[in-house]
Amino acid sequence: MKRTWKRIAAVALCMSILMTGCAKGGGSQTENNQTEGSTTEGAGSESDNADTSKTTKDVIHIAMHAVPDSLDVHLLSDQLARIIGYGMIWESLMTMTEEYIPKPELAESCEVNEDCTEYTYHLRKGVLFHDGQEMKADDVVASMNRWIDSYGSVAEMVGDARFEKVDDYTVKIATETPALFLNELIAAQSQCSAIMPETVINEVDESTGFIKEYIGTGPYCFEEWADGQYVKLTKNEDYQPYGNPGEASGWWGYKNAYIKDVYFDFVPDTTTRGTGVMTGEYDFAFQLPSDNYSMFEGNQDISIYKENAGSAMTVFNKKEGLATNPLIRKAVLYAVEPEHVMQAAWTSEDFYRMESSYMSREQANWHSEEGSESYNAVNKEKAKEYLKEAGYQGETFRILVNSSNNFFTAMAVVIKAELEDIGMTVELNSVEAATFLNQRNDSTLYDAFLATPIPVCVPSMQIYMNPSWPGWTTDEKLQELNGKINAALSVEEAKGYWDEAQKYCWEEALPVIKYGEFFNYSVSSAKVKGLMYFNGPYVGNAQIEE
Length: 546
Description:
- The protein folds into three domains: 42-89 and 218-301 and 526-546, Periplasmic binding protein-like II (D-Maltodextrin-Binding Protein, domain 2, 3-Layer(aba) Sandwich); 92-202, Dipeptide-binding Protein, Domain 1 (Dipeptide-binding Protein, domain 1), CATH 3.90.76.10; 308-518, Dipeptide-binding Protein, domain 3 (Roll).
- Helices cover 28% and strands 23% of the residues.
- The protein has helices at 5-18, 45-48, 79-85, 137-150, 152-158, 182-187, 198-202, 270-279, 326-335, 338-346, 380-390, 406-421, 433-440, 476-487, 491-509, and strands at 2-3, 34-35, 59-64, 94-96, 102-104, 107-113, 118-123, 164-167, 170-174, 220-226, 230-235, 248-249, 252-253, 261-266, 284-288, 302-316, 352-353, 396-402, 425-431, 448-451, 512-525, 528-529, 532-533, 537-538, 543-544.
- The model is unreliable at 1-32 and 34-50 (pLDDT under 50).
């Protein structure tokens, strides 16, 4: 017996209510020009009710803190590439509302069998890629199978199963074991399942594996990449919106594309990004430091966007080097005071909170206290004992740091000092973002790196649990438990496996050390209306008043 997507969506809605919004990160502007992660007003509502007699601008400038290595979101989990490309250039079979409910996007509907082993997607007809080709099943199959091959957590869920063409407007995938959360993975921004033309996928750069052309179905087309300066997108005049005007939430729903040209300007200096909004040089500034918050708070000409942005972590290299020894990892755990790390990086408790659960407390179905006794339990003498037991002889412990974000640098300085307190030799390798992403893939270059993974809806989607992601979490027990989570037929069953996995992580495996959760803020001119902030700025229905 088939279940239509309406039935699946109803179940997902119930789940989202239980999960209290699943770490909800979206929202639009409130009356006091401040937006919080808990805001529920849908994007587009302000735009579609805007005063049409007012003159609006055709161009928006968004100041970003670094330059992505590529916009190939199949191969890169880089946040900047996702913000620029996902929902703007590319769309997916399914996408997320701000309540983290997956809904059809390029799929018109989805059918799932009773044991969640067969998913059939009926495609929207007449959808055009930016080069004028109609999107059909061959494109979807090529895109989705490249996506599966690129992300270990997806491959873990579906096993050897791959998407198949049923006819020009229907595709399906049949898994050997239940895949209850497949649509959540497809809809998640953290692992973008972008749909591209088959021809683009067949003509990747042989030396890098990256696609050569950025062609999607979204409301904006890739126009220009000025090296080190900006990426420019321009309105897709042939875009056919789905849904009804004013009906939009998160990345899902009706997109008008009022603004013709979107510039993502690369501005590494945080002060320049912030003051640029105040002077009018930029319309939006992404991720500003907490110690500059007072510049904007209470300013009626500025809108503030604040959200739970993720977890602050040390990710250990478990493929080779010092950190392959779990006793070294335990020494680091007991040497470093989590609150010292969080205070140094985010200054005020307004911008961080102490939290042991790998899944945020807002996610009622997944939040777990298992293993919490090992969190924030600093014991320098115990740390030294672990070093001695590990046979540590003063070897250099190398930490790779992304210097493009000030908070990483602040975290690194504290961690280095506290490890030196227990007698470790520590070297910080601070490099800019693009170099960091490249070096992170080379297991010979570091013993640990600092990361801030974004919230996800399902624990098995945590990127640091992926055996092929840098850090290489290949622990057999963790992979077995992740597989059981993916194969569960109920959230309750999956939660039991997750509790066991988190306890094992804290007490034995230690693939990462979580220090806490942090809140980012970004700002825009108050003249920007209808912009959705959902794990980054989304311009789909934004307008800018002159």
